[in-house]
Amino acid sequence: MKTKVAIIGAGPAGLTAAYLLSKNNVPVTVLEADPVYVGGISKTATYKGFHFDIGGHRFFSKSKAVEDFWTEILPNDMLVRPRSSRIYYNGKFFAYPLRAFEALIKLGVVRSALCLLSYLKAKLFPVRKPDNFEDWVSNQFGKRLFNTFFKSYTEKVWGMSCKDISADWAAQRIKGLSLGSAIKNALFPQRYNGDRSHVIKTLINSFRYPRKGPGMMWEACAEKTRAMGGKVEMGCKVVGLDYDAAGETWSVSFKDPQGETQKFEADHVISSAPMRELVRGIRPAVSEAARTAADSLKYRDFLTVMLIVKNRDAFHDNWIYIHDPNVKVGRIQNFRSWSPEMVPDADKACYGLEYFCFEHDGVWDSKDEDLIKLAESELLQIGLAKAGDVLDGTVVRQKKAYPVYDDDYAKHVDTVRQELDACYPNLHLVGRNGMHKYNNQDHAMMTAMLCVENILADTKLYDLWDVNSDAEYHEAGAAAAEETNGTALRNVPTRVPATPELASEQT
């Protein structure tokens, strides 16, 4: 096949597509703006021999095809790790998922009883057709538990009221979880027995993880892609896409690491770039309606303050959700608990304190040394370190980490999608930012896998927008969806790689 494919972005979606296309002898060029790291938000940064993630990534998927892919990329480097996370609320730590009796004791009998009554009230008198996060979660857990365990943290993450966040986000991120399922899991914990179809991801108790972080997966994927003849170009920012409708070809313009503008021709473009930026760079320009819709899409940014501290075994969780409104930190990672190989010194620990913000707000624009001091003071305030424990630190900022699900986002995405589908049949949107969908790695990868199948078949076998948040494919018009829990997808050719079980859970 002589089709040439350009891929924007070397994150999980972009590199999955690049690897599979290269495996099928399709010439592919990946353009990644970051000069150092592949993996996007799934990269693993390094500092003085310490490895740390940008967000947390638990590798578990309902899709066998995705799991097999990971195994193919890293056949000997995937650890099985215990899942452990807690919630910090009102000066106390609560196990998450819920441990019923622990929660009863720490909340107190009266408060627990009121929470149960609130839950029963929500079941008897639910909000009909909930359209915002607060109403959706309150229907599942009751208003009191919503205020206790959801409101503060969620508003930290998004920087907006829970009433202004679309119910779509809650339905996607905590699908299948309710107070009833949480209590059931507390009494009878889920065990993964090979059947992915009935697993609630939020409640899994173990997961796979690369020895040196998720970036290890994508660095290996990039190298294997190059070994098969594919190109992965770092420090190359796409600045324009010129479409020739007559020839159905693209001219891709990008700035190389020296700042020079380069161009090359492609028959297909696969984009995992933020939808807003992609639309701005297409020529001939999209309609005013599509441009306005794209410009209306919003993103939430965040930064990680990585601290190297004296190892006092303060906690063993993978991460702790910080629901206390008296501190700015939203979540704290313990990277040794992800993998011992992330931390080179036995007498030291490596913590990542995550701050959710908007680009160029007060937190984002703070000096690194001030952010390190803030993180140190909040770590002490929460009780996870003592004075003098912090030895060193660094800061990593991540733009457009989360596509915002506000009231109008779905309408804007649909406007852009319809125009791009109609005018540019060989432009394919994949991944979290490419589709403006808050999804996990496995979902992003599945969109890329199906995109590759469409390109190889030279027809639209699959609608990528019908891949849901569990990396399942819902065939358009089908009465019932088929889950990818066995022999991959219905009608998907065997070219779809057998790959590992990526159980990726992110904020």
Q: What does it look like?
A:
The protein contains 17 helices and 20 strands. It is of the alpha/beta class and 507 residues long. It folds into three domains: 5-40 and 213-296 and 408-466, FAD/NAD(P)-binding domain; 98-191, no CATH class; 299-403, Protoporphyrinogen oxidase, mitochondrial, domain 2 (Polyamine Oxidase, Chain A, domain 2), CATH 3.90.660.20. Strand 6 and strand 7 form a beta hairpin. The two termini are 39 Å apart. The relative contact order is 0.21.
Beta-strand percentage?
15-25%
Helix content: 25-40%
Provide the CATH top-level class of the largest domain.
Answer: Alpha Beta
Structural class: alpha/beta
Report the average pLDDT across residues: 87
What overall geometry do the principal axes of the alpha carbons give?
Answer: globular
Count of discrete structural domains: 3
CATH topology of the largest domain: FAD/NAD(P)-binding domain
Going by CATH, the architecture of the largest domain would be 3-Layer(bba) Sandwich
SS summary, helix count: 17
The CATH superfamily title of the largest domain: FAD/NAD(P)-binding domain
Annotation, overall tally of beta strands: 20
Radius of gyration from the alpha-carbon trace, in angstroms: 23 Å
Distance between the termini: 39 Å
Q: Walk across the major sheet and give the strand order.
A: 7-6-16-17-18-15-19
